[in-house]
Design brief:
heterodimer; A: 574 residues; mainly alpha; two-stranded antiparallel ribbon; 4 strands; globular; B: 193 residues; 6 helices; 5 strands; 47% helix
Chain lengths: 574, 193
């Protein structure tokens, strides 16, 4: 028999290393596919899906070749979000009278329906409801799954628009939102999801229109199994970095994530499009080394975070060791994943803006739970959400060249464009949204009675539960310290506002930057330019992300996870 | 600006309708159709049946409590092992209820491995570690009047190892192990040994 693993193991590190290696290997193949979509070229699937695409354009009266200014692009994007939100809100409210609801579940309350709608429109997938208890198969399929495609496609479209801002010269046009969004959905997300969903079914994920199955256990007890169209939701939940699970337990549930191999695929699929976008960016600006430099900085930040979580979780909880229970921290974790795959999943899902969980972050050790929070607070730019990760990271790149430019005393340039006051102002505007909303919301909830009613745990961990909620909502992540009772009018409202601001108060400035950059002429690299490819640049990027993105949150983290870590070492319980 | 607003209305409404129908109805329906044909066992929940009734799913834990069966991990799903209320305890690392619970359980089950005294993330974890199965061998063998080495062998036959040695953890599926145990001793569906 194999002895129980205490502390980190070579096997665990090998799995993490394999994962990072595969992410690097995925960057170019996925990037090539994305680049074809970015350029508007035909893909091998155009022959099959081309008629569908053209039919959609004809019905909606769009000329895909007619390009938009940044204002038109942003307006089209916002109008589309509004239309999709209305449909979902109505579907959730009317659940009780709609079909595919054999258990007769009632419609959602107005605040919960509003929160859930905004959550899925903004690619957050914060879930104030428990999937198996509150939603019918129709609501899961028709009210929520489309957002997993469309919010992901919207993120990628905005990233494409920003790439065009860098790549184009002296134009005010940055692409056509309708064409970008439709093409990404049809030629990337849908085909990938179809193949992936079938792989998941083969791996054990149910896919049926049935809702419940009655079983009589070996000991004669009655058990009601909940099934449904799970695999189709699971596939796009990962690929689109959405994270909204069919079940309350999300990817910890054996029906969502039945084996260690499926789990590994889930982690890879969260990062797949994000790493591909870094390569696509490099190709779009005519120098693939630029993309590799961005990916290198991201993976350095990612690996450091993953290592800390694994180390913390594998070494376990000294309070439980003292009580006589040796070993890793297994509270809230599944045996088939263990400490290593649970820790890696937590790092992946928060570095990306996914928010799926395969273990309960609320029960992680203080430091193991702090890193996921910190990953989101960095702006989810470590690979990040599909589209939002790369455009968020490029905001930091603009700041980095600005700071480097100040140091060498020249006008800062990045990939052939002069970075001037307008771009830096807009970048800072988008970056300060995160601390404002996270720290403001947490502070408010820590003094209001409605806010204080939320946490399930006492002491610093209760504060961490509130901090995590506003971090997750503003960062559009969707994972949670699940002990927080979030389905109250107060939290449903406050977190919905945080999600909305965290999404669109970043997207619109990004599009404005794209518009501003596109108008500039090309500035060739000269001897005085700061190189944006080598190790010096990668180091600078890492430092800027940590200092600008992270430092703001240290005081709050000191009150939550760091205080709890000290208390744990001192033997205190709450 | 107002003109752009009007122009965006039609594509917003039409594309919303078209893409919702495509990704929210056609896509899950197509996947369901193919899945039911190609992988009916998995697509319907990996069910285990005996005769014409369903015993459970090999992926979902059952609350075995009798001494003659291997026990799963404790569950925080509803009142325990309730698939309609999946979830973990969400107790934090410095939670007094957590430390008190573990302290009491350690006293009642001296030497039990860590996974047997902690609740899982889903509350439906179908697996236990090989050590957790081994720890229960004495009790099961005694209740079933079986020699211990025979039960140990059965556990070892049911250990699943990590893929390629690195993906996953060694584990034992409790329901499958208990079914094998019933087969070994010729127990029926409802007999409680």
């Amino acid at each position: 028999m194999i002895s129980a693993a205490v502390g980190t193991s070579l096997v665990g590190w090998a799995m993490i290393l394999l994962f990072v290696g595969l992410c690097i290997a995925l960057a170019k193949p996925v990037g090539l596919w994305l680049f074809a979509l970015y350029e508007g070229r035909d893909t091998p699937l155009t022959r099959v899906l081309g008629p569908v695409e053209r039919g959609f354009y004809r019905l909606s009266g769009i000329d895909p070749a007619r390009e938009q200014t940044w204002r038109q692009y942003a307006l089209a994007m916002l109008m589309f979000q509004l239309a999709t939100a209305l449909v979902t809100y109505v579907l959730l409210r009317l659940q009780g009278v709609l079909p595919f609801n054999p258990r007769g579940l009632p419609g959602l309350s107005s605040d919960l329906a509003m929160n859930t709608t905004i959550s899925f429109v903004t690619n957050t997938n914060w879930q104030a409801y428990a999937g198996e208890g509150a939603l019918s198969n129709l609501s899961q399929m028709l009210a929520l799954v489309p957002h997993n495609f469309l919010s992901a496609a919207t993120g990628i479209a905005v990233a494409f628009a920003l790439f065009r801002g860098f790549a184009r010269r002296q134009t005010q046009y940055i692409g056509n939102f309708w064409a970008d969004m439709t093409r990404v959905t049809l030629y990337l997300l849908l085909p990938c999801a179809v193949v992936y969903a079938l792989v998941l079914v083969a791996g054990g994920v149910p896919q049926t229109f049935a809702s419940t199955i009655d079983a009589t256990t070996l000991e004669g007890a009655h058990q009601t199994l909940v099934v449904g169209p799970i695999a189709s939701q699971e596939a796009i939940k990962m690929l689109g970095t959405n994270g909204g699970g069919f079940f309350n337990a999300n990817s910890a549930h054996p029906f969502e994530n039945p084996t260690a191999l499926v789990n590994f695929l889930q982690m890879l699929s969260i990062f797949a499009i994000g790493v591909g976008l870094t390569w696509c960016f490099g190709k779009a600006v005519g120098d693939t080394r630029q993309g590799w430099a961005v990916l290198a900085a991201m993976l350095i930040l990612f690996s450091a975070g993953a290592a800390v979580v694994y180390w913390a979780e594998a070494n376990g909880n000294p309070l439980l060791h003292h009580a006589g229970l040796a070993g890793a921290n297994m509270e809230g974790k599944e045996v088939r994943f263990g400490a290593a795959a649970s820790a890696l999943f937590a790092a992946v899902t928060t570095a990306a803006s996914c928010g799926a969980v395969n273990a309960m972050h609320d029960s992680f050790t203080p430091l193991g739970g702090m890193i996921p929070m910190f990953n989101i607070e960095l702006g989810e730019v470590v690979v990040g959400g599909v589209g939002s990760g790369i455009y968020g990271f490029l905001l930091f790149a603009l700041l980095a060249v600005f700071i480097a430019g100040l140091m060498v005393g020249r006008t800062p340039e990045y990939v052939g464009k002069k970075i001037e006051s307008r771009e830096v102002k807009l970048a800072v505007l988008a970056i300060v949204v995160l601390p404002l909303c996270i720290l403001g919301g947490t502070a408010l909830s820590s003094v209001l009675a409605d806010g204080l009613a939320g946490p399930a745990n006492k002491g610093p961990h209760g504060f961490s539960e509130i901090l995590y909620a506003f971090t997750s909502a503003t960062g559009n992540n969707g994972s949670a310290f699940g002990g927080l009772s979030a389905n109250t009018p107060y939290y449903n409202g406050a977190l919905a506002v945080a999600m909305w601001i965290g999404r669109f108060f970043v997207m619109v400035p990004v599009l404005a930057i794209a518009g501003s950059l596109a108008q500039k002429k090309y500035t060739p690299e000269s001897a005085g330019s700061f190189p944006t490819t080598g190790p010096l640049w990668i180091g600078l990027l890492v430092a800027i992300v940590l200092i600008v993105g992270g430092l703001t949150f240290l005081p709050a983290l000191a009150l939550g996870p760091i205080a709890e870590h000290m208390a744990m070492l001192a033997g205190s319980t709450f | 600006m107002f003109n752009d607003f009007i122009q965006a209305t039609r594509p917003a409404l039409v594309l919303t309708t078209a893409l919702f129908a495509l990704t929210g109805l056609a896509y899950p329906a197509a996947i369901t159709g193919v899945a039911q044909l190609a992988f009916p066992h998995q697509a319907n929940g990996s069910l285990i049946t005996r005769g014409d009734h369903v015993i459970g799913s090999e992926l979902i834990a059952q609350g075995f409590a009798g001494p003659g069966y291997f026990h799963p991990r404790p569950s925080a799903a509803g009142k325990g092992y309730d698939p309609t209320q999946s979830g973990g305890s969400n107790l934090g690392p410095t939670s007094k209820p957590l430390v008190d619970r573990v302290t009491a359980d350690v006293k009642a089950n001296p030497g039990a491995p860590v996974d047997l005294l902690t609740t899982s993330g889903s509350g439906l974890d179908p697996d236990i570690s090989p050590e957790a199965a081994e720890w229960q061998v004495g009790r099961v063998a005694l209740a079933r009047h079986l020699p211990e080495p025979k039960v140990v062998m059965l556990v070892e036959q049911n250990v699943e190892l990590p893929l390629f040695g690195i993906i996953g953890e060694p584990r034992v599926n409790v329901l499958k192990l208990n079914l094998a145990l019933d087969k070994l001793t010729g127990e029926g569906a409802h007999s409680t040994p």
